[in-house]
């Protein structure tokens, strides 16, 4: 599990093998993969993810997703990461 409060930023591929509790200020450029549930709560200046957020579980407390929360799908960011890491997408289900 990963719980973030305060001011956090990063870039790359972030894989959380558990639940992800996101509070405070969070700025991330890249792919965030959570293998369980994501909980986004208010507070902080902004929560920005430029790239993509993949959640295997559910987004809990969705009524608390308020304030400056932005998740932007960016094929450009994903392509840039691919050129650095050479990962492979084994399957994709569009729902």
Poorly predicted segments? none
- With helices defined by DSSP (H or I, 4 residues minimum), what is the helix count? 1
How is the largest sheet built, in terms of strand order? Answer: 1-3-5-7
| Number of strand elements | 8
Biggest pleated-sheet summary? 4 strands, parallel
Q: What is the share of helical residues?
A: 10-25%
Succession of helices and strands: EEEEEEEEH
Description of the molecule:
- It contains one helix and eight strands.
- With 95 residues, the protein is mainly beta.
- The longest helix is centred in the C-terminal third of the chain and has 11 residues, at 75-85.
Summarize the structure.
By secondary structure, the chain is mainly beta. Helix content is 12%, strand content 47%.
Descriptive keywords:
95 residues; 47% strand; single chain; four-stranded parallel sheet; mainly beta; 1 helix
């Amino acid at each position: 599990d990963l719980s973030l409060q305060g001011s956090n930023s990063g870039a790359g591929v972030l894989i959380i093998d558990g639940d992800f509790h996101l509070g405070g200020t969070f700025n991330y450029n890249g792919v965030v993969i959570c293998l369980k549930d994501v909980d986004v709560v208010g507070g902080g200046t902004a929560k920005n993810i430029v790239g993509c957020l993949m959640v295997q579980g559910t987004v809990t407390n969705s009524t608390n997703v308020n304030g400056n929360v932005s998740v932007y799908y960016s094929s450009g960011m994903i392509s840039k990461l691919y050129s650095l890491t050479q990962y492979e997408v084994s399957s994709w289900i569009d729902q």
